[in-house]
Amino acid sequence: MSLRYALLGLLADSPASGYDLTQRFEKQLQMIWPAKHPQIYGELGKLADAGLIAVDSEGPRGRKVYAITPEGLAEVRRWLTEEPVDHTARLEALLRSLFYWLMDPEDLGEHLASEAAFYRAAAAGFREYAAAKDRGDYGDAPSVKSMRMTIEAGIRLYEALADWAEWAQTVPPPGPAAEGAASEGSEAER
């Protein structure tokens, strides 16, 4: 459902084609809310059917540029102010950490080092993007100022995850599980 509001928010900034929106997702939102070409086009059709966006213009080869309607703008504002935020964190890295006891200590160490490096690199990428925004490379439109807040959240989140992965490398490894332990059950289960 949030893809709908991401598209409405992007179109509130400026009209765009499905291709343009796909590019914005790849460049601006990839690390926080990824969406693929077919998902975007499918949702654009639903938004148009609901009267929340309209075709602003058509270009060569039937390329449609969409613009948000007043109803669409009211809907995205309603979502921002009235809908409760879904704070569910669906981070595969954290799900996997629940099962680290199944990994060999050497594999776990390599995995955690890789995770720390990934998160440090992601934070660095966000920092570069922040520096460009702070220099004014993208102007000073309200959408740019808002994106700067999002970038700062990304920096802080990925730095925290890198810190966690580095910390996890310093604690005694929880595994590996003995062969057949999963089928035999733990002492507490017997």
UniProtKB/TrEMBL annotation:
Gene3D superfamilies xref list: Winged helix-like DNA-binding domain superfamily/Winged helix DNA-binding domain
Entry protein name: PadR family transcriptional regulator
Signal peptide: none
Region (Disordered): 169-190
UniProt cross-references to InterPro entries, sorted A to Z: Tscrpt_reg_PadR_C, Tscrpt_reg_PadR_N, WH-like_DNA-bd_sf, WH_DNA-bd_sf
Pfam family, one: PadR
Native organism: Glycomyces artemisiae
Sequence ranges assigned to domain Transcription regulator PadR N-terminal in this UniProt record: 7-77
Biased composition (Low complexity): 177-190
